[in-house]
Amino acid sequence: MAAEAEAAREARAKVIAAEGEQKASRALREASEVIGDSPAALQLRYLQVIFNYFTL
Fold first, then answer.
1. Residue 38 phi/psi, 5° resolution?
2. How far is CA 39 from CA 6, 15, 34, 36, in A?
3. What is the pLDDT of residue 35?
4. Is residue 35 within 8 Å of 41, Cβ to Cβ?
5. Which CA distances in Å does 16 have to 20, 21, 26, 46?
6. Which residue spans adopt a coiled-coil conformation according to this UniProt entry (predicted)?
7. Are 35 and 45 in contact (CB under 8 A)?
8. What is the pTM assigned to this prediction?
9. Enclosing H/E stretch for 55
């Protein structure tokens, strides 16, 4: 019975992880669309990355 419960927990953890990956993929796609539509957005993102790198 304990093994079944453990297997069920592991299966649920895999489903949760997959859902998170799916949400992250959608967010990345949306971000790429915004950046692709606006060269200024790309420049701002670049500056943000540089700023974050040097302020660690």
1. -140, 110
2. 49, 37, 9, 7
3. 86
4. yes
5. 6, 9, 16, 31
6. none
7. yes
8. 0.64
9. none
